[in-house]
From TrEMBL:
Biological process annotations from GO: CENP-A containing chromatin assembly
Chain coiled-coil ranges: 6-33
Top-level division of the source organism's lineage: Eukaryota
UniProt cross-references to InterPro entries, sorted A to Z: CENP-P (IPR027801)
Keywords: Coiled coil
Keyword GTP-binding: no
Protein name: CENPP protein
Lineage of the species this protein comes from: Eukaryota, Metazoa, Chordata, Craniata, Vertebrata
GO cellular component, one term: nucleus
Gene that this polypeptide is encoded by: Cenpp
Length: 190
């Protein structure tokens, strides 16, 4: 093989090594910025937040008071999960852009509503003007377990187009509840 052939291979090897280095850096950045919250981490965060806010307002509270407040919050959370049927299993948030009055974050959220699994991915743009904060949802992507129903597919498509998370959660809650009723009814007749 001639000198030019070896040089071409050397150049290709160097280009691949550079690409590997850049991808490794990108992966490390994403891994550090992306946070996944388990139930335990959420409770720790709530407890930490309570200490900060309560500590500022009332001084230091006793551990028993904090424990009672935490139990109250856990009870409230359990009630809301039972009432709405939503059980969130994972959440990740990555800040894409941050300026003095504008923040763009990418969220990934997954969970279940009754027995229907769902996954959401969206960007949240928060803008602050004077004392007002506005938030806009964009790039909404919804993946649901129950796509065999064409009405659900149409609803998911419309929701993705409009980026209306509140309507999605309200409608999913109602649909999932009735989905459970239909499933139990059909099992009864089998």
């Amino acid at each position: 093989m001639d000198e030019g052939g070896f040089q071409a291979y050397e150049d290709e090897i160097q280009a691949l090594e550079e690409e590997i280095r850049l991808l490794t850096e990108k992966y490390e950045d994403m891994r550090q910025e992306s946070t996944f919250f388990s139930d335990e981490e959420i409770l720790k965060s709530i407890k930490s937040f309570q200490r900060e806010t309560q500590g500022d307002a009332k001084g230091h509270e006793s551990p028993s008071d904090l424990k009672a407040q935490l139990e109250s919050l856990e009870t409230d959370l359990s009630f809301l999960m039972e009432f709405t049927g939503f059980h969130f299993t994972s959440h990740s948030k990555k800040t894409v852009e941050k300026t003095q009055n504008r923040t763009v974050q990418k969220h990934r959220l997954s969970g279940k509503c009754h027995s229907l699994s769902f996954q959401l991915e969206f960007q949240l743009l928060e803008m602050q003007n004077d004392e007002k904060i506005s938030a806009v949802v964009s790039d909404l992507s919804i993946v649901m377990e129950s796509r065999e129903d064409s009405n659900v597919s149409k609803f998911v498509s419309r929701t993705e187009e409009h980026g209306d998370l509140l309507t999605f959660f309200r409608s999913l809650s109602t649909y999932a509840e009735w989905y459970e009723h239909r499933k139990h009814t059909f099992l009864h007749f089998k």
